[in-house]
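User: Hi! I'm working on a homework problem where we have to compare a predicted structure to a textbook description. Could you give me the structure for the chain below?
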Amino acid sequence: MAGFWQLYRAITQIWRLKQSLLYLIGYFLLGDSLNTTVTVIATLQNTIVEYDTLTLTYLLLVGIAAQAVGIYSFWWIQRRFRLGTKTMFTAIMIGIVMLYVSPHPYPSSQSNPTPYLSLFIPATDGA
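Assistant: Happy to help. Predicted structure tokens:
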């Protein structure tokens, strides 16, 4: 019964702590979007390339390690050159757009409406 009482007190108190409420909502949305992203990526990889479960797990671990290296690298660059948050955000967004619009490995005769999937779809020899 103590758990319900604490839950009631937390719900009544959260309205007084607006920043905490916003943090909890943002944390939930961020966690949900990350889970959705990982699920979609795993589904696409399994559908298009048909990796086995162990390979998908290894790829997920490599992706997590690459994210950690990227986060640390951007943090170091920001600290080293004393760049502001808006400057770093703009630089990262420009980098993401450049990756998205970069040429993909398909022959010019083959149309691909989704170039971001070009890494997962093996190129054919025109057959």
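For your comparison, note the following. The radius of gyration is 21 Å. The mean pLDDT is 81. Good luck with the assignment!
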